[in-house]
């Protein structure tokens, strides 16, 4: 089954991502407060979040948190290690506005990448308070998500 077929014919399954943070308090404020992700189970060393329907687990591991390397993509230095979600265009604009209103320092400001090309997309990069890079993107046509 091709990627294009799978996105159009199979329901997406939630993914699970565990990642390091320097502070669970900061992670809760950022993911739960600013991004609005509901908190699930937790312990003194980790906390689960409902990250747009996916299971995101922040593990206390200060020495591993943060991004270190970048690659050039469409004229920007993109953090190599990052994660995020593909939103609808309306939700992407609403999140960009909320982040700007909150004074978020962007690694890459909200903009349209690959303008006029098959992979045209809205994108933005920012760091959580523990230095982990996030990318949120949107496509005018979600069918172009895997287009070549």
TrEMBL record:
The residues covered by the VOC domain are 13-139
Residues in the signal sequence:
none
> What InterPro entries does UniProt report for this protein, alphabetically?
Glyas_Bleomycin-R_OHBP_Dase, Glyas_Fos-R_dOase_dom, VOC_core
Know the name of this protein?
VOC family protein
Question: Whose protein is this, by species?
Answer: Paraburkholderia denitrificans
């Amino acid at each position: 089954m091709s990627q294009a077929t799978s996105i159009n014919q199979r329901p997406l399954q939630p993914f699970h991502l565990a990642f390091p943070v320097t502070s669970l308090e900061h992670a809760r404020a950022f993911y739960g407060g600013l991004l609005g992700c509901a908190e699930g189970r937790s312990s003194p060393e980790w906390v689960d979040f409902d990250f747009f329907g996916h299971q995101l687990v922040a593990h206390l591991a200060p020495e591993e948190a943060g991004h270190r390397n970048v690659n050039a993509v469409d004229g920007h230095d993109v953090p190599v290690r990052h994660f995020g979600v593909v939103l609808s265009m309306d939700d992407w604009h609403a999140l960009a506005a909320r982040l700007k209103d909150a004074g978020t320092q962007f690694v890459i400001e909200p903009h349209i990448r690959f303008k006029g090309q098959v992979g045209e997309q809205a994108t933005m990069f920012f760091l959580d308070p523990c230095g982990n890079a996030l990318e949120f993107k949107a496509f005018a046509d979600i069918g172009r998500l895997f287009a070549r």
